[in-house]
UniProtKB/TrEMBL annotation:
Keywords: Iron, Metal-binding, Oxidoreductase. GO terms for biological process: coumarin biosynthetic process; response to molecule of fungal origin. InterPro entries: DIOX_N, IPNS-like_FE2OG_OXY, IPNS-like_sf, Oxoglu/Fe-dep_dioxygenase_dom, Plant_2OG-oxidoreductases. This is Feruloyl CoA ortho-hydroxylase F6H1-3-like. Belongs to the iron/ascorbate-dependent oxidoreductase family. Residues 201-309 form the Fe2OG dioxygenase domain. Gene3D superfamilies: B-lactam Antibiotic, Isopenicillin N Synthase, Chain. One of its GO terms (molecular function) is 2-oxoglutarate-dependent dioxygenase activity. It comes from Coffea arabica (Arabian coffee). The gene is LOC113736166. Pfam families: 2OG-FeII_Oxy, DIOX_N. Signal peptide: none annotated. Coiled coil: none annotated.
Length: 358
């Protein structure tokens, strides 16, 4: 049953309701609040209305119809160097697969709070499945207007036993059907780093573990005062992001203070370089800051797959990159330490990568 509308959202215990009782921001949105609870008000510098947004250009869109054309690999490497973000079209991931996982995301978040709450930090029997809201509420001064379900892939059997049935098959299918695209993107990017042979051992250094998130950004009262996701870069090797047709993802243009919108393109998938690849490429490929604004008109969903090193891998500049005498700007760090550092703090732009700087 939906709780009744509190008289004053600023005296009522919003944190207890949204975070502890796991109603999430969807629970708040369903109450029909007309003002944004103060816990969600971000400092002005985090609000997009106080940022420079440029509309003259946006991230590259790369057509993958002709994988074998060397121009395609060149475009991928170029985009990874100049933008850190690009969209791919004609990538071969069937449209039903992406439609199905988006629909499953709506299904999951449409479940009653008690059902979703079975997967919250306090209740989930496994760390591999986590339903939550905001990013790290305990470490945040202001919360983010987002709910999520995060699924760490271990094996098909584990997923069958632990992942919520509302979205399990669709999430697994999207992960599997995107695998060959990920592999080819990595091959192109590795060639650009002078890495010749990519055998299975090498491959697993880059894509040895995967996490898929289902993100839900409900319609928000006073959206300009908060954020969907604050400024951050991903800790992945690469992120494969499916978004619906609402829009709201902004990417920071390299060497500037300007932000560009990532326009939804029907059938396209957004790819971005994460910190692990920036570090291994010794800064050649860029893991850039991005954020999502809140939306006052419609609910938005997105589904990122974070393609990661394994937790036990060491990340540092690759020998092939340093071969020519280039000085390393990052040290060798244990990937699980790097990820722990990321999750210990609120989103803070590009600061995570300082953890690995020499
Ligand atoms: C993320 C992220 C963007 C989006 O989950 O790391 O940046 O569009 N998501 O939801
Ligand atoms: Ni991100």
């Amino acid at each position: 049953m939906a709780p009744s509308l509190p008289m004053d959202p600023n005296t009522w215990d919003v944190i207890s309701f949204a975070v502890d009782k796991a109603h999430g921001v969807k629970g708040l949105a369903d109450l029909g609040l007309e003002t944004l609870p103060k816990q969600y008000i971000q400092p002005p510098e985090e609000q997009i209305i106080h940022s420079t947004v440029v509309t003259e250009n946006s991230i590259p869109v790369i057509d993958l119809s002709n994988w074998n054309d060397p121009m395609v690999a060149e475009q991928i490497c170029n985009a990874a160097e100049k933008w850190g973000f690009f969209q791919i079209v004609n990538h071969g991931i069937p449209i039903e697969v992406s439609e199905n996982v988006k629909e499953a995301t709506r299904q999951f978040f449409g479940l009653p709070a008690e059902q979703k709450n079975k997967h919250s930090k306090d209740n989930s029997p496994t760390n591999n499945v986590r339903y939550g809201t905001s990013f790290t509420p305990k470490a945040e001064k202001a919360l983010e207007w987002k709910d999520f379900l995060s699924l760490f892939y271990v094996s098909d059997d584990e997923a069958a036993a632990q992942w919520p049935s509302a979205c399990r098959n669709e999430a697994l299918d999207f992960m599997k059907k995107s695998e060959f695209v990920i592999r080819r993107l990595l091959q192109a990017l590795m060639k650009g780093l002078n890495v010749k042979e990519i055998d299975e051992t090498k491959e697993s250094l880059f894509m040895g573990s995967k996490r898929i998130n289902l993100n839900y950004y409900p319609k928000c009262p006073e959206p300009e005062l908060t954020v969907g996701v604050g400024r951050h870069s991903d800790v992945s090797t690469l992120t494969i992001l499916l978004q619906d047709d609402i829009g709201g993802l902004y990417v920071k243009k390299l060497d500037s203070d300007a932000w560009v919108h990532v326009p939804p393109i029907n059938g396209a998938i957004v790819i971005n370089v994460g910190d692990a690849l920036q570090i291994r490429s010794n800064g050649k490929y860029k893991s850039v800051e991005h954020r999502v604004i809140a939306n006052g008109i419609k609910n938005r969903i997105s589904v990122p797959i974070f393609v990661n090193p394994r937790p036990s891998d060491i990340i540092g500049p690759l020998p092939e990159v340093l071969e020519s005498g280039e000085k390393p700007i990052y040290k060798q760090v244990l990937y699980s330490d790097y990820v722990k550092h990321f999750f210990r703090k609120a989103h803070d732009g590009k600061e995570t990568v300082d953890f690995a700087k020499i």
